[in-house]
Amino acid sequence: MYIDSHAHIQLSQFNSDRDAVLKRAHAAEISTILVIGFDLETSLGAVELAEKHKNLYATVGMHPHDAKDLTPDVLKTFRDLLSHPKVIALGEIGLDYYRNLSPRAVQKEAFEKQLNLAEEMGMPIIVHNRDAYMDILPILETRQGKIQGVLHCFTGDVELMHRSAEIGFHIGIGGIVTYPSAKDMQAVAMEIPSERLLIETDCPWLAPQFRRGKRNEPAYVRAVAEKIAELRNISVEAIGKMTTHNFNSLFITD
User: Fold this and answer.
1) How open is the CA angle 51-237-169, to the nearest 5 degrees?
2) pLDDT of 33-46, one tens digit each?
């Protein structure tokens, strides 16, 4: 069995066939899907969807693009939602210096506030990072031993991967690893410590090579597992077992 540790199937791109998407995931042996919120609306949508399906879990949080929208009232709503039995992490949160849709200072402030909340509530985090490792990792290093989580859609090099793993973070690998040109990502996937590896789709975006440019969906996380298995010269079943164990160890505490 396999777990998609990062999906956005609450979005409108799935409104016309969401049930069929879930059936295809089941047929592809995807046992669990983590539905990721990235602002108030999508966080509420993730929780609502997870409530309807036994094999879905949710996260809540404010993406750095919308960091300016993290008001005290929204932060309180997130705090309340983190007590929901189907909410298992805070995220996706982080920094994005590629698009800079919120000022960097505002992004940092929102990130720190949500890190404080995660630490207060004892929740793991889902970290979005784009072109911001120089700030993300020092911030997380100051909280080593206090916060765990995953650097989702990891695009750093092998050195940054090891630095992230050393402070207790998991590494989320998605469809990019299947692209022929993604040699750096493939090198990372080969070297991630077995206990730190997670697989994800980030659907509806970043479909693997065989669906590149089209809508992604949880069933396709199997292609990610297959590519990592090829790179590490082990069976795809071993990747499924490994990443399922890692997901449950990080997120599922009961």
Assistant:
1) 65
2) 999 999 999 999 99
Tokens encoding 174: 């998605």
- Whole-angstrom distance between the N-terminal and C-terminal Cα of the chain? 19
Separation of CA 253 from chain center: 18
What is the average per-residue pLDDT within 99-108?
92
β-strand pairing of 56-60 with 30-35 = parallel
Nearest-CA neighbor of 152 among 141, 136, 166, 138?
136
Instruction: Find, among 150, 158, 148, 147, the residue nearest to 174 by Cα.
Output: 150
Q: How far apart are CA 201 and CA 8, in angstroms?
A: 9
Contact 246, 196 (CB under 8 A): yes
d(C-alpha 84, C-alpha 94), whole Å: 22
- The predicted-structure confidence for 89-98, as pLDDT tens digits, reads as follows 999 999 999 9
Closest CA to 57 of 94, 29, 82: 82
- Outline where 202-235 has alpha helix (H): 221-232
Q: Give me the pLDDT at residue 99, please.
A: 86
* Residue 173, beta-bridge partner list: 199
Average pLDDT over residues 2-15: 98
Q: Report the alpha-carbon distance of residue 44 to residue 61 in Å, rounded.
A: 10
Residue 70 sits at φ, ψ, to 5 deg, of -80, 80
Q: Which of 5, 60, 38, 13 minimizes the C-alpha distance to 218?
A: 5
Task: Give ∠ CA 146-95-176 in degrees, rounded to 5.
Answer: 100
- pTM, two decimal places: 0.97
Residue 170 to residue 245: CA distance in whole angstroms? 12
CA–CA dist 239, 112 (Å, integer): 33
* Secondary structure element (H or E) that encloses residue 126, with its range: strand 125-130
